[in-house]
């Protein structure tokens, strides 16, 4: 047992999904170990044969960490049924998946990997990882707008955390968030009577978009030293 690892960690380590998704597969009875349907708490030992829906799961591939400049119109999903899905756009030679998401109309920095463990680490809300955006809205920004955006607003049945907001131009501002509510910035602006025209993420943690061209990616050694 000393060399065994939890089943969800083993599956995530193959790069096909996150640990959370692996847990859902276990609950659905889709995973088996040595021909026996797996249950929560199972561990994998060296030499064990693990299958998903009867098909063998391969050994862990080399880790991949990408910083990608997502264009508008590309959906942050691996679902092949979506004609604008991220994976078809990138056409990367290994199976990868996004760490978090950007909505379809937004642009900027998106991280991708085949490392299921890193996904959980980055996405944990309690880690307070910073994400920085440049946003242009449809009318002039007031001091009151900046104050209210920074102080927190009621959306989606909760209140947004206090955050850093800076006006850059008449209709453009910079905002740094430490949470990731669905379409958070757009909803915050709508609450104050503004409509977002462009939204670009320029930083996640210490990873910066920099001068990476739209639609291109750069490979990284890891995300860990950027927390």
TrEMBL record:
Keyword Isomerase carried by entry: yes
Any GO molecular function: RNA binding
InterPro entries on file: PsdUridine_s_RsuA/RluB/E/F_cat, PsdUridine_synth_cat_dom_sf, PsdUridine_synth_RsuA/RluA, PsdUridine_synth_RsuA/RluB/E/F, PsdUridine_synth_RsuA/RluB_CS, RsuA_PseudoU_synthase, S4_RNA-bd, S4_RNA-bd_sf
SMART domains: S4
Keywords assigned: Isomerase, RNA-binding
Reaction catalysis annotation: uridine(2604) in 23S rRNA = pseudouridine(2604) in 23S rRNA; uridine(35) in tRNA(Tyr) = pseudouridine(35) in tRNA(Tyr)
Pfam families in UniProt: PseudoU_synth_2, S4
Keyword RNA-binding appears in the UniProt entry: yes
Limits of the RNA-binding S4 domain: 5-61
Broad enzyme group: isomerase
EC number: 5.4.99.-
GO biological process per UniProt: enzyme-directed rRNA pseudouridine synthesis
Protein family according to the UniProt entry: Belongs to the pseudouridine synthase RsuA family.
Name of the protein in its database record: Pseudouridine synthase
Organism: Neolewinella litorea
């Amino acid at each position: 047992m000393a060399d065994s690892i939890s089943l969800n960690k083993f599956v995530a380590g193959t790069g096909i999904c996150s640990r959370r998704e692996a847990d859902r597969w276990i609950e659905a009875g889709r995973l088996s170990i040595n021909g026996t349907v797996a249950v929560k708490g199972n561990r994998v030992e060296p030499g064990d044969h693990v299958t998903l829906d009867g098909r063998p799961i391969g050994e862990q591939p080399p880790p991949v960490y990408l910083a990608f400049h997502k264009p508008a119109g590309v959906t942050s999903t691996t679902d092949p049924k979506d004609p604008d899905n991220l994976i078809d756009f990138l056409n990367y030679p290994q199976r990868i998946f996004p760490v978090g998401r950007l909505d379809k109309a937004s642009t900027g920095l998106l991280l991708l990997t085949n490392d299921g463990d890193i996904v959980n680490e980055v996405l944990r809300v309690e880690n307070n990882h910073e994400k920085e955006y440049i946003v242009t809205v449809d009318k002039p920004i007031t001091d009151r707008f900046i104050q209210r955006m920074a102080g927190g607003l009621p959306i989606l049945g909760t209140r947004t955390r206090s955050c850093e907001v800076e006006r850059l131009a008449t209709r453009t501002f910079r905002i740094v968030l430490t949470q990731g509510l669905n379409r958070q910035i757009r909803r915050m602006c709508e609450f104050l009577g503004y409509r977002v025209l462009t939204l670009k993420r320029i930083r996640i943690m210490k990873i910066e978009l920099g001068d990476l061209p739209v639609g291109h990616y750069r490979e990284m050694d890891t995300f860990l030293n950027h927390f």
